[in-house]
């Protein structure tokens, strides 16, 4: 009987190790494919010369302010262009946070307002207490949470 228990324990342990390896591979794959998807979407959208200026003025937001996290107190001017947030060095706002993905989220001017989009992040993007699952309009002063960092749009 002990040999049977030992064999079951060995195979169970091997199964757990393989499940862990597959979970890690899936997470890495998800990060890499979200990177490709974001690049393709940005290129396909193309420049829109007149809309960004109108959107920035209509939305009333001129600054993205970091309220919590490593960059607390920093302000990023919204110039009517897309703002990307993540760990990638080419992001508009680079955050060094283990809970943030390489390409975590973006804020884009659309239809006279700023819209928040999660870019397939692992840990999610939150507007207030709600998880962002699709393009979501961002009101002034509403907290945007990514990992340990929080942001707000301000006039």
Automatic annotation (TrEMBL):
TM region positions: 12-28
Keyword line: Membrane, Phosphoprotein, Transmembrane, Transmembrane helix
SMART domains: FHA
Start and end residues of each FHA domain: 83-132
Keyword field contains Kinase: no
SUPFAM superfamilies reported in the protein's UniProt record: SMAD/FHA domain
Domain of life, source organism: Bacteria
Name this protein carries in UniProt: FHA domain-containing protein
Organism, as annotated: Natronoglycomyces albus
């Amino acid at each position: 009987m002990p040999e049977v228990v030992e064999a079951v324990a060995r195979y169970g342990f091997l199964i757990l190790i393989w499940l862990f390896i597959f979970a890690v591979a899936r997470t890495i794959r998800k990060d890499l494919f979200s990177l490709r998807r974001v690049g393709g979407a940005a290129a396909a959208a193309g420049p829109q010369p007149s809309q960004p200026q109108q959107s920035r003025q209509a939305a009333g937001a001129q600054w993205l302010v970091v309220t919590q996290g490593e960059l607390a107190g920093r302000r990023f001017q919204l110039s009517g262009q897309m703002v990307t947030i993540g760990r990638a060095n080419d992001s508009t706002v680079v955050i060094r946070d283990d809970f943030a993905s390489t390409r975590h989220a973006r804020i884009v001017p659309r239809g006279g307002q700023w819209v928040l989009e999660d870019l397939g992040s692992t840990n999610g993007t939150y507007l207030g207490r709600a998880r962002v699952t699709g393009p979501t309009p961002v009101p002034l002063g509403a907290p945007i949470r990514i990992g340990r960092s929080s942001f707000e749009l301000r006039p």
